[in-house]
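[Automated response] Your request has been received and processed.

Submitted sequence:
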Amino acid sequence: MLKRELRAGNIDVLKSTSKSTPDKVLQRLKKYKPKDGDIRKIDDLWLVIDKDDNDLNAIFSAEDIRKYRFADSNPCFELWLILHCKPLDRLQGLEGSAAVGGCDKVIEALKKHVDPNYLKTKYNVSAYLDSLESAIKNAEKTDSNKQATWMNTVGTCVYKLADSISKLN
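Generated structure:
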């Protein structure tokens, strides 16, 4: 949806399947071939993944880390959606969500503070576009180690991908 809304035609999005664990997403990306030929050195290949309870260090090799970019969320993607509305430090109790309550706790906060009708498989992406800049700023504040490959604390690096896409126009 972000690609369509920002008219970023030079982006290919691999369709999500029910197999969305980080290792399955990596397998799909490794099989990917662009419609117009080969992957070029200037191309960025992103994996959008949730940390959940996965040990990302065990899933991704050093070669994967060099080859791909990661837009991960810890514990889950819904944290990125919350950050469109409020910074993490304004949501009491969510700071430790990865340890206590995980994604269920994040979704509960999303429904309480942002979208009471939120459904994981069907939500209105367009409703979040007006607050994209705020979300990028709020998410960047959660990233205490911007050089790290992925989030090791509660937060999301989806802002890096969103920022990259928004700068294409």
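Summary generated for your ticket: The longest helix spans residues 102-113. The chain has one domain: 2-166.
If you did not submit this request, please reply to this message.
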